[in-house]
Amino acid sequence: MTAHPTPSPSEVIASGADLLADAVAAQAVPVTRVDWRPPMPGTEADLATVAGDPRRRDANARAVEAVLGVTAHLVDVVPAADALDLQRGQFLHAGPPIAWERASGPMRGALMGGAALEGLVGDPEDAAALFEAGSGVSLEPCHHRGAVGPMAGVVTPSMWVFVLEDPATGRRTHCTLNEGLGKVLRYGAYSPEVLTRLRWMGEVLGPLLQAAVRSVRDAGGVLDITGILTQMLQMGDEAHNRNRAGTLMLLRDLAPAMVTSAGPAGLDPSDVAEAMRFVGGNDHFFLNLAMPACKLALDAARGIDGSTMVVAMARNGTDFGIQVAGTGDEWFTGPAQLADGLYLGSYGPDDANPDIGDSAITETAGIGGFAMATAPAIVRFVGGSVPDALATTRRMHEITLGENPRWTVPVLEFQGVPTGIDVTRVCRTGILPQINTGMAGKQAGVGQVGAGLVTPPAEIFPKALARLAELAGGR
User: Fold this and answer.
1) Per residue in 343-386, pLDDT tens?
2) 3-state helix, strand and coil shares in percent for the chain, rounded to the nearest 5
3) Which residue has the higher pLDDT, 360 or 134?
4) Which of 22, 413, 419, 424 would you label with 233, given CA atoms 20 to 30 Å apart?
5) What are the boundaries of each domain within the chain?
6) pLDDT grade for 11, boundaries at 50, 70 and 90
7) Interior CA angle at 106 toward 104 and 110, to 5°?
8) Computed from CA positions of residues 458, 464, 470, 475, in that sequence, does the dihedral angle turn out positive or negative?
9) What is the per-residue DSSP string for 209-277?
10) What pLDDT score was predicted for residue 453?
11) Which CATH topology does 45-61+301-473 take?
12) Which residues contact 216 (CB under 8 A, 6 or more apart)?
């Protein structure tokens, strides 16, 4: 009898633990490793129900198409009272709904400063009693009024807001003007210098930007925010915690009109110079345009029955909430998490508040933490390493429905950013969306204490999946 040698496999595909893969690789056999994970505990039945929904595939394709079809143009700058129909005593805030009793320190600090800005109290410290009593004041999420707000996201009637519009549909979104970093209202600070800056923004910066934007618009020009995002992603920005190129491109497009429209707006050259110094010296200024641009795109997917795509991720400093295209305006919430990152000065983890802000709308649209590979320098601000940034972008493709061909990552061969977070893919893989964020001090009035990386609480995705399964079963 002739003995025949056992043929060696040309390749082995291994999933799960690395033990088998390592043993095979040690025998010089090519191994393809598949990063397989069991689904989130308790989601198996709901995953099966949603996977069997005949509407899902087409609904998700339509949702992605709708998002990618939106172009955001900056068309105006106006007081929030006019754009959002805000009345005296009405306050918008970041994240899902919350009452004063559960509000975090930075949220309370921003509301207290906002009350003083509006003249409801003479001293911000006196505003706590006003909100505790609830008399003549109300709180509502920015998302409920077609707006977004960074960090605490507090919007009051006298604050000026950017107005973004999709020219194809006329839909609009809004965001306040960015104050800069450090001790600012959105981080919960309310000192006299914070209020002085906000009043200058209302008296000088807002009117000047309004005159400039209207001048460009009336001359037939276009301030294409989606287009600027396309360029800045190829220039080292990821449009959440790094907006340097975007800010300078915006200033480039607006500066001539700011100069020529200052006189008609009743402002003098020193006002223009001060405004340009403020914008040019504030690398985060463009963030407040990136955010409403992302919301404008994602809002196009709202209300598509059967779609499992996330259309909003938002935090109020206490709760983290998501909204899904196929579940209407319902929020699915869990406890906001503490970011892991770098701290300013002598601050440390004990000083930081859990995650806060509507700015995770950037990640929801595929930029920010999802596009870290295009901005490796961001790791110097939020922590981690350059390989981590590359790996993060690749990993986010595993939980999204598509790519954005307009927003690309040069180092990944101009691959489109991962777009359309899919609730089912998150539950099936256990991979959570990666967000890079600033950190606010947990005590009202402190301001910014650092920046870092954070993910949503895992339990909110099974909650959304259960609702999708319920809707699929009762269609």
Assistant:
1) 999 999 999 999 999 999 999 999 999 999 999 888 877 887 88
2) 45, 20, 35
3) 360
4) 424
5) 1-36, 45-61+301-473, 68-291
6) low
7) 120
8) negative
9) HHHHHHHHHHTT---BHHHHHHHHTTTT--SSS--HHHHHHHHHHHHHHHHHHTTTTT--HHHHHHHHH
10) 93
11) v583 fold (3.90.1700)
12) 222, 223, 253, 254, 257
The dihedral formed by the CA atoms of 248, 288, 263 and 216, expressed in degrees to the nearest 10? 70
> Residue 446's closest CA among 348, 342, 338?
348
Give percent of the chain with pLDDT exceeding 90. 86
What's the CATH fold of domain 68-291? Enterococcus faecalis V583 fold (3.90.1710)
**Cα–Cα dist 295/437, whole Å:** 17
Q: Taking 60 as the threshold, does the pLDDT of residue 34 lie above it?
A: no
Amino acid at residue number 287: L
Residue 91 contacts residue 140 (beta carbons within 8 Å): yes
Chain CA centroid to CA 286, Å:
13
Query: Quick one: tokens of 398?
Result: 């595993």
Write out pLDDT tens, residues 75-105: 999 999 999 999 999 999 999 999 999 999 9
Q: How far is CA 21 from the centre of its chain?
A: 38
Tell me what pLDDT residue 24 has: 66
